[in-house]
Amino acid sequence: DWTMASVVEESVAAIRERVGSRRAICGLSGGVDSAVAAALVQKAIGDQLTCVYVDHGLMRKGESEQVEKDFVAATGVKLTVVDAEERFLGALAGVSDPEQKRKIIGREFIRVFEQAASEIVAEAGEHGESVDFLVQGTLYPDVVESGGGTGTANIKSHHNVGGLPEDLQFQLVEPLRRLFKDEVRMVGQELGLPEEIVHRQPFPGPGLGIRIIGEVTKERLDLLREADAIAREELTAAGLDREIWQCPVVLLADVRSVGVQGDGRTYGHPVVLRPVSSEDAMTADWSRLPYDVLARISTRITNEVEDVNRVVLDVTSKPPGTIEWE
Ligand code: XMP
């Protein structure tokens, strides 16, 4: 496709021109956007780029391993993995407000990036150039919905990392900010990234932190990780991965309802399934999933995930609902 080839060529040239001989870091989130942004920048500046994978403890089951394995295998990129679970969960303790969560997560991301940047410079020794640039996989819809577009209210602090602090020490490189998701996938294909990466469903930078309604704790994250893994497993087994845009699983952590299991009363949490179909995430419709698939997901989650005794289906389109609950 000549259009995508020229998009790649032009943006590679622009990145080279801007970064010169300096260094950049790129946070990898496991999602397609950051992967494509990283691959594009790597093409432009090679190993002046270091990717940083921040394991913030808000990832889904198996996600960290996948990023570490698949992406490095596909691109040969330099990758630093930072275990930052305690830092993030500590910062999020006691916080329930969605925008506050996003801002905290964004801020902690930047702190980790700053620390990683100074370590990269220290390692490079006296000939090391400073790390001046932060690469982000921000897309056009993210720009619009964060209020950066024309005439649109701020819906969510939507940066790839969930909202940036004001005293940012990096210059941002956002090579995808004019593209929609389908175009990003085409760029990824053009760059030779494997199918598993190019067709991965969207996953938000703030991770499961914005899928727990209420305070984010390790216990709640573990619950949600189990429920989410079951839903993903069943959707994949049913061959629905390419049909649905994504299916957030949301834990209503502050809500309890009465149930009965075996001969005992339970008083557990509901989880919400939020399967959507969409072209660009700006609008979405709820997916009409087959009842038998929904039934399997529901049965397995309530049987296998302790403390979850109810599964509900979100049948709201966007608008008026957003895809994520926070
Ligand atoms: P909403 O909830 O605004 O989501 O309808 C639209 C799409 O964006 C994803 N999303 C994010 N992606 N950082 C991201 O990289 C974020 O902070 C973020 N918030 C939402 C969401 O999963 C959906 O695909």
From TrEMBL:
**EC number(s) recorded for this UniProt protein:** 6.3.5.2
Q: Which reaction does it catalyse?
A: XMP + L-glutamine + ATP + H2O = GMP + L-glutamate + AMP + diphosphate + 2 H(+)
Q: Which residues bind ATP?
A: S29, G30, G31, V32, D33, S34, A35
Q: In which pathway does it act?
A: Purine metabolism; GMP biosynthesis; GMP from XMP (L-Gln route): step 1/1
Tell me the enzyme class: ligase
> In its keyword annotation, does this UniProt entry include Kinase?
no
Locate the transmembrane regions by residue number: none
Q: Which domain of life is it from?
A: Bacteria
Give UniProt keywords alphabetically. Answer: ATP-binding, Glutamine amidotransferase, GMP biosynthesis, Ligase, Nucleotide-binding, Purine biosynthesis
Molecular-function annotations in GO: GMP synthase (glutamine-hydrolyzing) activity
Tell me which positions the record assigns to the signal sequence. none
State the name under which the record lists this protein.
GMP synthase [glutamine-hydrolyzing]
**Organism expressing this protein natively:** Streptomyces zingiberis
Question: Which gene codes for it?
Answer: guaA
